Amino acid sequence: MIFVLSSDGQPLDPCHEARARKLLKAGRAAVWRTYPFTIRLKNRTRAESVVHNHWLKLDPGSLITGIAIVQEDTDRVVFAAELTHRGQAIRDALIARRAVRWSRRQRHTRYRSARFLNRRRPRGWLAPSLAHRVLTTETWMRRLRAVCPITAMSMELVRFDTQALQNPEIRGVAYQRGTLYGWEVWNYLLTKWNHRCAYCGATGVRLEQEHLIPRSRGGSDRITNLTVACRPCNERKGNQTAAEFGFPHLMGQAKAPLKDAAAANSVRWALYQRLVATGLPVEVGTGGRTKWNRARLGWDKTHWRDAACVGTSTPDGLRVAVDSVLLIVATGHGTRRMCGTNASGFPIRHRRRQKQWFGFRTGDLVRANIPIGKYAGTHVGRVAVRSRPAFKLNGFDVHPKYLRLIQRADGYAYGYRNGDTAAPTPCFPSTRDRRPGSMLVSD
Ligand SMILES: [Zn+2]
User: Do the Cβ atoms of 212 and 250 come closer than 8 Å?
Assistant: First the structure.
């Protein structure tokens, strides 16, 4: 299916690609954007068109977020995509930067004053690698709303699968200090310990976070070592473990699962708030519901199918009307670094401030038509620009005179995956341009 805009730029119902091809051929429409493929009609406004309701459905994941759009009246999946995040790359980059800064403070170079214990984090702060997941998903929510008449949204908010029931401790990392700190740990603990002091059972008093095995005795910050206690109990316990204090059973209780698995992870909560802020109705579902819907429809597990199965709005006769899944990979917008260094950290090259050369910038999606030479033929990929006209494309040098722009760099690489949807025929752009492996270039 192809996204369609009216002549006044409003989103209309997506149409079949054969119809889009006819419209383009007849000159009644023009290509508006390549990824996701969108056409704009020349002679029909939104007021003249019949527009159906569409649900945008999201299954946010740590590495890949599934995206599906379901047309309400016809119960069809009209768009499927998988968004690959780059949280690990962001984390690596920040760690590399930190190492450079630390080493600069050690050396006797220009003075850089000590910076520690002077940071304050706002409420609901997320680590950059996690915030990126919220932001990129929000970006795609916005982009899809611009090309498709979306009237409601669904997202999977909490995990409720059996694994989570056995171990709802949110799988380790999420609750470590620094990645997720603040209200969520606290809410989880309050729910788990029923809003009362774990030692005296007091309610309605000011409660504090308490380590069962004190930090000074080697206790960790993991959620299985935390409880809530009132101030007097906390002080009386002091440096003792919970067992020494007379509450050995609390250790087991701390490790036991939270029965109603009310804990959602922070990224999903943050995303949920962004969706609600759009003003559209937002339905939330659990992982258990998703799984159940998927089993009901007899579908395999893929990210976009999970997305299509989120929530109670999933119809019984949900059909797939797309031929291929759009693969979106977050690549970032390059680096701000103006000085390249060798392995010893010695500056060896400097970058120019200019980003655009010969009309292109690094990351632009281009098509090269090379008439002669070793690389003669058509190539499609993300280009890396140079100040002299020897651009890099798919691992070889190419002169910009052979290039034609397909889509400006927007921080994502694109590709299609065929085969796990109903009919494995490719969608726009035509197959000519999609040589295996040439479309999805992430650098
Ligand atoms: Zn108490």
Answer: yes
- Cα of 186 vs centre of ligand 1, distance in Å, is 17
Q: Cα-atom radius of gyration of the chain, to the nearest Å?
A: 27
Count of alpha carbons within 13 angstroms of residue 140, beta-carbon side: 33
If you measure from the C-alpha of residue 196 to the centroid of ligand 1, how many angstroms do you get, rounded to a whole number?
8
Using the mean position of ligand 1's atoms as its centre, give its distance from the Cα of residue 190 in Å.
Answer: 14
The bridge status of strand 150-158 relative to strand 282-286 is parallel
CA of 225 to the centre of ligand 1 (A): 17
Place of tokens 């316990």: 237
Q: Find the 247 Cα to ligand 1 centroid distance in Å.
A: 12
Considering the entire predicted model, what is its pTM? 0.69
What does the alpha-carbon distance between residue 122 and residue 346 come to, in Å, rounded to a whole number? 37
Give the pair of three-digit tokens for residue 337. 């670094």
Burial class (CB in 10 A: 0-12, 13-18, 19+), 181: middle
Mean pLDDT by 10 residues, the chain (443 residues): 93 93 94 92 90 93 92 91 92 87 75 73 86 94 95 80 37 38 60 85 87 86 82 91 88 68 67 92 80 80 91 84 91 85 86 88 91 91 88 91 92 84 37 32 30
